């Protein structure tokens, strides 16, 4: 599947359980290896809050959306808090939490 950059930069980002995190507005590339390092996501066009989603957080990308692992969302957080916290997906049963940049 192919998708152009203009469409990619408008993709909504959801968790596996359907919580909308926001929309992709920028991508960070590592030039030498030609790889994506992070997806920059905002709740809305006017929002100043920026979420950084690393490729390891992504479960799937389709032409209509990006889906991240539920482990990305802190367990028990409110919906507003869920959009502010990201974790590494569970690796061997352990998930590590980290605050994303705003």
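^ structure tokens above, recovered residues below v
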């Amino acid at each position: 599947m192919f998708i152009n950059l203009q469409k990619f930069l408008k993709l909504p980002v959801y968790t596996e359980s359907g919580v909308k995190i926001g929309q992709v507005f920028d991508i960070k590339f590592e030039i030498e290896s030609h790889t994506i390092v992070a997806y920059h996501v905002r709740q809305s066009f006017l929002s100043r809050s920026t979420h950084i989603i690393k490729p390891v957080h992504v479960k799937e990308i389709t032409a209509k959306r990006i889906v991240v692992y539920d482990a990305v969302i802190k367990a028990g957080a409110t919906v507003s808090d869920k959009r502010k916290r990201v974790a590494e997906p569970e690796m061997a049963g352990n998930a590590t939490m980290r605050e994303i940049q705003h």
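Helices lie at 5-8, 79-82.
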